[in-house]
Amino acid sequence: MTSLRPSTGRGRAIVATAFAFLVAMMGTTLPTPLYSIYSALLSFTPLTVTVLFAVYAIGVVGALMLFGRLSDDLGRRPVMMGSLALALLSAVLFLLPPSLPALVVARVVSGLAAGLMSGTGTAAILDLFPPERKAAAGTLAVAVNTGGLALGTVAAGVLATLAPFPLVIPFVVHLILCAVAFLGLAAWAPRSNRRGPLRVRAHRLHVPREIRPAFVRGVLAAGTGFAVTGVLTAVSAIFLARDLHLDSHALSGFVVFLAFAGMAVGQLIARGLRPGTSLVIGCLGLAAAAAALAGALALLALSFLLAAAIVLGVAAGLCLNAGIATTVEQVHPAHRGEVSSSFFAGLYAMLAVPAVGVGVLANLVGLREAGLAFSAVVGLLALAVAALEAAAARSRRR
Predict the structure, then answer these.
(1) Which of 88, 116, 93, 115 minimizes the C-alpha distance to 104?
(2) 390: buried, middle or exposed (CB in 10 Å: 19+, 13-18, 0-12)?
(3) What is the pTM of this model?
(4) Helix H or strand E encompassing 191
(5) pLDDT digits (tens, 9 = 90+) for 71-96
C-alpha cells in the first residue's frame, strides 16, 4: 500500500506517525481539567459535563463506523493528515467565547479527529514495523495513544494553574503542535501507491469470523477500562472541587494523567505476558480499581481516588494490549485499518454510554451515589469477562 525508503526513511516515518498520533490524542483530553472552570462559568451540572464528554465519544464512534476502512483504501498518510486538520479546527473552536453550543461542536470535531486517528494511527504504526516486531509496534501504538491522552490532561492542568488565560493558552499550544505534526507527516510519512480518482465512501465495518470471539472479549475487557476512565475523566474535576474542596486544575489533570500514564505502564508489563493472561489479570485489576473508586466516593478520600486511577490505568493497559494482540495484529494489513477501527469503535461506545448514565443518575440521586452504583456494575462486568477469558483458555488447551 505504501512506499518507503529503508533505514533513515523508516525511522523518520515512525517518528512522524507516532508524534501525529500523540498530538491528535492530546487534544481530546485538554478540556478535562478545565471542566470545573466551564462549570462555574456557565453553570453546568454533572449531567451537562458528562454529555459534553459523550458527544466527543459519539464523534469518535461516528468517524470509526463511517470511515474506519478509509485508510485501507486511500492510504494512512492522507487520513492522518485529515485527522490533524480536524484537531486543529477543534482547537480554534475552543478559542471562541465559551458557550455550551460552541463547546459541543468543538467536542464533536475533536471526536471526529480522534476517530480518524485511533484506527488509522494504530494501523500505520503496525505497517511501519517488520512482521517479527509486531508486538513492539502494538505497544508503541497504544503507548502514543494513551500517552497523548495523559499529556493532554496534565499539560492543560499545569497551564491552567500557572499561565494566564486558562481557557486560551492550552488550546493555542495544541494548535501549534497540530501544525508541526501536520508538516512532519507531509515531509516524512510514506505516500500511498494508490492510483486513480479519489473517492471517499462510507463503509460498514467488518470483523473476520475467525477472530470474533477474541474480538468480543477484548472489546468488553478494554471497554470496561475505558468506561471507568471515561467517568473518571468526566467528573473527577467536579468531584475534587465540590466534594473534596480542592480547586487545583493541575490536581484534576494529574488524576486523569495517572490513569492514562498507567495504561502505558500496563503496555510494558503486558509485553512479558501471554495475551490471555494479560486479559484475565487486567480484568481483575479493573474490579479492584472499581472498588477503590467506590472507596474514594464513600469516604471522600483523595488517596483512594489516586489509587483507583493508578490501578485502573495499569489494568486497562493490560486489557488494551491483549485486545489488540488478539485482533488487530492477527489480520492481513489490507484489513488492519478496518479491524482497528471496529475495535476502537467498541471501546469508545463503552466510554460514552456509562458517562452519560452516571450524569443522568447524578441529577437524580447525587454524584457520589451515582458513582457508587457505577463502580458496582463495572466491577461485576470486569469479573465476568475474566471468567469468560479463563473458560476460553481452558477450552483452547483441550
Answers:
(1) 93
(2) middle
(3) 0.80
(4) strand 191-192
(5) 877 889 999 999 999 999 999 999 99
